[in-house]
Amino acid sequence: MNHDTGATHSPNVTELRALYRAAEARAARLRFIIEARNLLDARTFEAAALEVLSRLADFAGASFAELVFPSSREELPVQLTVGKSTSPGSDSILFTSQDDSGFCLTLIGPPRGLGVDADDRQTLEVVAGQLADACNLQRQAAEKQALLGDLERQRSELAALVAQLIQAQEQERQRVALDLHDGSAQLAAGLSYRLQDLSARIGEKHALKPEIDQLATLARRSVADLRAAIADLRPPELDDLGVAAALRTRLDAIAGLEVIADLDAASDRWPTSAGIIFYRVAQEAITNVIKHAEASRLVVRLFEDGKGEAHLEVIDDGKGIVEECPPPVQMRGGRLGIVGMRERLALLGGRFEIVAGSSGGTHVRAVAPLRQETTSE
Q1: In angstroms, what is the C-alpha Rg of the chain?
Q2: Longest dimension (CA), the chain
Q3: Do 219 and 188 touch, CB atoms closer than 8 A?
Q4: Do β-strands 258-263 and 297-304 pair in parallel, antiparallel, or remain unpaired?
Q5: CA pair distance 277, 280, nearest whole angstrom
Q6: Which CATH topology does 235-377 take?
Q7: CATH placement of domain 6-153
Q8: CA 141 to CA 277: how far, in whole Å?
Q9: How buried is 147 (Cβ within 10 angstroms: 0-12 exposed, 13-18 middle, 19+ buried)?
Q10: Cα–Cα distance between 104 and 217 in angstroms, integer?
C-alpha cells in the first residue's frame, strides 16, 4: 500500500516565513554583537562604552540605560547613562548584569513595555560580557601605567639618593685627604727635612750618619706614600676634567707595565655619581693588578654603548685568579677589593664580574645604566 507523505512534511508558506524571520533575527543579533565588539576594540573604553550603551538600550527597547564601572587606583566608580526614566519608581528592570569587580549594567523600560525574550537576553549577556572584559582590560592598563609611573618616580628618587650618598662619601674622602695633607703629610715632610739637615751637619765621618740617612730615606718614602694616598682619596682631575681624564692620569703614573688605555672622552660628561663610581672601581681593579697579578700588560677600556649603559673593562696578562689560595690570603688580597667594587656598582643598579682571561690573566667587567640625576626633596 502506498502513502503520500509529501503534504505532511513540506513546510507551508507561514512556516517558511517564520524560519526566515528567525534566521534574520539571529543574524541581526550576531551583527549587533560583532559591531559592539568592533566599537570596543577601535576606541577607548569610555568613548566606546557610551555608544554601546545607547545601542543596548535601543536593542532592548529600554528608555533608560545605566553603566557603572570601577575606576582604577581605588577611586570612585564611574557612571554612564543614556536616556531617562519615564516613570521613576514604577519602571521595570528589563535587564541587569554585574560582576565582582564592580561592573554593573542596567536597562530600564516602561511598566507596560515589551519584555526581553530568552534569545535577546542571551545577546545582551554576551555584549555585557564584552563591556565587562573591555572595562577590566582598560582598568588593568591604567593600573599598569600608574605602577610604571610610580616605579619610574622611585627610580628617580633612588638615583637622587645614590647621588647624595656618593657625594657624601666623596666629601668625607676629601675631608680625610685634607686632614692628611695638613697633618701627617706636613709632619712627615718636616721630619724628612730635619733628618736631611741633621745628616748634612754631622758630616760623613759621624758614626750615626748611615742610620740617619736611612731614617731620612724612610721619611721621604712616607711623604711620597702619603701624597699618593691623598691623590687616590680625591684626585683633582676627577672634579676638574672628568673620569676619563682622571683615569688617564692614574694610568700615566704606572711604571713597569705596558699600559693600553681606551677611554671614551664622552665619559667625562656622565652623571657625577656614575663617573665617581666607575673611577673607584677602575682604581681598585688597577691596584689589584699592580699589587697581585704579576702582569706585564694592562688594558683599560671605558665607554658607553648605544643602550645608555656605561662599561668598564680592566684586563691583564698576569697569573690570573688563583682558586686554590687559602681564604686568609684571598681576603688580604683582591677579595675585599672585589666586594667593594661589586657594592659600588650595586648603588647604580649595575653588574660586576671578574673572570679568567681567554689567554690567561684576569678580565674585570663593570656595567651600569646611566640615569639622569635628580634632586630628592
Answers
A1: 41
A2: 157
A3: yes
A4: parallel
A5: 5
A6: Heat Shock Protein 90 (3.30.565)
A7: 3.30.450.40
A8: 37
A9: exposed
A10: 90
Nearest to 273 by CA among 160, 153, 156, 151: 160
> Beta partners for 263?
302
Q: Which of 12-26, 70-84, 118-132, 171-185 has the lowest mean pLDDT?
A: 70-84
The answer to whether 6-153 and 235-377 have equal CATH topology is: no
E strands in the chain:
64-69, 78-83, 92-98, 104-109, 258-263, 297-304, 309-316, 351-356, 362-369
The residue extents of the domains of the chain are 6-153, 235-377
For 257, other C-beta atoms within 10 Å of its C-beta total: 18
- Asked if pLDDT for residue 312 goes beyond 90, the answer is yes
pLDDT digits (tens, 9 = 90+) for 68-119: 888 766 667 788 888 887 666 667 888 888 887 778 888 888 766 566 788 8
Q: Which of these, 268, 211, 218, lies nearest to 242 by C-alpha position?
A: 268
In this predicted model, what pLDDT tens digit does every residue of 157-174 receive, in sequence order?
877 787 787 778 777 877
Cα 341 from Cα 282, distance rounded (Å):
9
% of the chain surpassing 70 pLDDT? 87
Contacts by residues 304-310 (CB-CB < 8 Å, ≥ 24 positions apart): 304/264, 304/266, 304/267, 304/270, 304/370, 308/369, 308/370, 309/367, 309/368, 309/369, 309/370, 310/267, 310/270, 310/274, 310/278, 310/350, 310/367, 310/368, 310/369, 310/370
